Hints:
By secondary structure, the protein is α+β, with helices and mostly antiparallel strands. It has four domains: 3-69, Phosphorylase Kinase, domain 1; 73-256, Transferase(Phosphotransferase) domain 1 (Transferase(Phosphotransferase), domain 1), CATH 1.10.510.10; 280-566, Neuraminidase; 573-626, no CATH class. It has a four-stranded antiparallel sheet with strand order 1-2-4-3, covered by helices on one side. A four-stranded antiparallel sheet has the order 13-14-15-16. Strands 17-18-19-20 form a four-stranded antiparallel sheet, with no helix packed on it. Helix 6 crosses helix 8 (224-233). The protein is globular, with a radius of gyration of 29 Å.
Amino acid sequence: MGEVYRARDNSLGREVAVKLLPDELASDSERLRRFEQEARVAAALNHPNILTIYRFGEKDGRTPYLITELLQGQTLRERLLTGPIPVRKTVDYALQTTRGLAAAHDRGIVHRDLKPENIFITRDGVVKILDFGLAKLLSSDLDEKDATLTMPGIVLGTAGYMSPEQVRAQASDHRSDIFSLGAILYEMLSGSRAFQGATPADTMSAILKEDSPDLSTRARNLPPALGRIVHRCLEKDPAERFQSARDLAFNLELLTREDSSSGVVAPISQPTKRRWAAPLVTCCALLVAIGVGWIFGAWLKPPSRREVPVTLRRLTDFVGMEESPAFSPDGKSVAFTADVSGYRQVWVRLLAGGTPLQVTHDETDHQWPRWSPDSSSLIYFSRSDESAGEGKIWEVPALGGPARPIVSSPAAGDLSGDGKSLAYLRASQGQIELAVADRDGSNSRTLTHLSPNFIYSDVRWSPDGRMIGFQMGRVFNYDIYYVPVAGGEAKKITQDSNPLAGFAWLPDNSGVIYSSPRGETVLYLPTMNLWSVSITGKNLRQLTFGEISYISPDVDRSWNVIVARQKVQFDIWRFPITDNPRENVSRAIQITHQTGAVQTPSVNATDREMAYLSDSGGHGNIWILDMQT
């Protein structure tokens, strides 16, 4: 819409593009409003995959114009005139487009007219999204009047690339853009449109009623995973599509790394056939601090009380709490939970790098993700009512999608190595049972009865499938036990009687690695170190030392270990007291910024000063804070 001219900005010494709306079109109120919309929306975005707007104004007081960056290359439509695009280039262009869309969606902006004509490919292969003239503002800092450009009941868009909800003139959100991009992806790979009728009306009818032809019959050398991505983008129901552009970007990034080596780093040496082979340990950046990786070089020798050499490696950098990392069996990804919006959600990240994918989205806490053997799905535990002890174990596709409940349980479960069975805890008539069921929750059988007077957690199947381990205890006294799958009584592995923070089986089934404050004298927030012990309770080894805590370990078949790294920071915060605890926390204000522990704050009668103890600087002192400054 409009005429585009090449020009030179003398003030800045650069070439630019000038887009004019001719007088005859400027008199059309709808076209004028779309032109202004494009200027306002694009100018609010700053992303390398979105056309940059430099200026908006009027020539002679009547001809609107835009000054933008000058692009040299061709539109995607022009490129498609020469035929389908190779898979590698398609994924590259799609990933760039998706990142641009994600930036727009983060600002509450939906493009709503995504098509090959509005995607530009520069000579350097950089994708630029053009023309936000039909954009819808879901929520943004722009003027409220801009949000009324497209209203339900009015069909706007381009036939062939419109989502079903657009065709029906219904309210649409960012998932409409994902459908449009799916149609573009289909055309890039096959050279033909996903939906094509004799007339625009026929095309829109096909979007509503027909599935696109099988892409694998039209596209040569199509990777099955890419075909599934396109198919999911083109789902009629928005709830069945990728739920965000970032989710789609994660899946596309996964395709680009199919040939990369699995794991974080290659082991320096393979585990020997000895019972206690030296493993390579790699940690995840979870919880408050960054993550690290290091090698325990002397597991076969008595450990010395010294710092273990480390190689730092950051894997995640979320602001909130992160925990419960788990390696995928294929060695390519790690699942974990992160509290980024007041609720712990399940996330997946490629070990080779890329954008983390949020797998769950509902407003409840999810814990302890565990992978299926084929790395296609995750199970996790969720307690919908935090005051209740009972919750459910759920299964969800690893790349996101609807979750299904499996069984009710007071704690997390684990899938067997063949993926056919689920080990979990079952509450029955006031008793606790360790049980095994089919993967769908059917045919449950009791392995052993457990005392209801203890708390149980962290159910984990041994790599050989012959044992099921779990933590059992109460208050500050916990230990790790296991039960033979063939039946029998629970057997004790550890002799800690400490508040443990997770364990994992060693790959050869000979023992476990676990997190414990063993040897610490402080009960409140003690330092958690990693330890290893044989299944008989012998050969106890301390693996980490120092003031940093390491919790929730997981081990893969190559002896790689991933853990959460935790460093506690003490400070004093002030927050309101209402009936909504989550709102209270979100409105909290930090009033001290100490480098050490802070204890026993006391405010004077006038509320002007507060005294507290702190060991900042290495020595315990009483501090006085003026609360009025």
